[in-house]
Design a protein that fits this description.
Elements: E1 5-10, E2 13-18, E3 24-29, E4 34-39, E5 50-55, E6 59-65, E7 71-76, E8 85-91, E9 106-107, E10 110-114, E11 117-121, E12 124-128, E13 134-138, E14 142-145, E15 155-157
Antiparallel strand pairs: 1-2, 2-3, 3-4, 5-6, 6-7, 7-8, 9-12, 10-11, 11-14, 12-13, 14-15
């Protein structure tokens, strides 16, 4: 992520995470209207490019951009905070460059969870010409999958309207629910 701080809702509290190494996070409990310090339960060192989303039953999902290209979807093995993280599958690259056999690294994509699906949105990639010149190309593609289906099956949804494509600073989803 390209920010120093970010937050997400997890197990009834709002957690504020800081980029970089740390051993704790701050959590706000809206029922008690209080802040507390909790042991850091997040998956990877924050200096890596990743994002975390929470789905129903407090299931955590993370997308990790690998150093040599490619993106992985990970989840925790247990529902408790001590569970091991493991890889569910990869996000296929949406870009094929005819003059370059390597898969371009997509950067700055958004990652969101909505209902029972995960979304990977937008981003950009470096397109180099044979002369060595080049620049970043914007992506408006939206990919979606159900993380419970194995192997992960990614479907292209309707792309973002232009000029909305390109790097995504952050994604959030808000769902309403009625009390039983």
């Amino acid at each position: 992520m390209n920010c120093s701080w970010f937050g997400l809702s997890y197990k009834g509290s709002f957690h504020v995470l800081r980029a970089g190494e740390q051993i704790s996070t701050q959590a706000f409990n809206p029922l008690e209207m209080s802040w507390s310090t909790v042991v850091d339960i997040w998956p990877l060192p924050r200096r890596m490019n990743y994002a975390v989303q929470v789905m129903k039953n407090d299931r955590l999902y993370s997308i990790v951009t690998q150093v040599l290209g490619g993106r992985l979807i990970q989840t925790r093995g247990d529902t408790d905070d001590e569970g091991e993280w493991y890889t569910l599958g990869s996000v296929p690259c949406v870009v094929v460059l005819p003059d370059d056999p390597r898969e371009p690294q997509v950067l700055g994509h958004g990652f969101a969870a909505l209902r029972d699906e995960l979304y990977v949105i937008g981003g950009r990639f470096l397109k180099l010409e044979k002369s060595g010149a080049g620049g970043f190309e914007r992506l408006s593609v939206v990919r979606v999958c159900d993380p419970l289906v194995r192997p992960l099956i990614w479907i292209e949804a309707k792309p973002m309207c232009l000029p909305a494509g390109g790097p995504i600073t952050g994604c959030v989803s808000l769902e309403e629910s009625s009390p039983p």
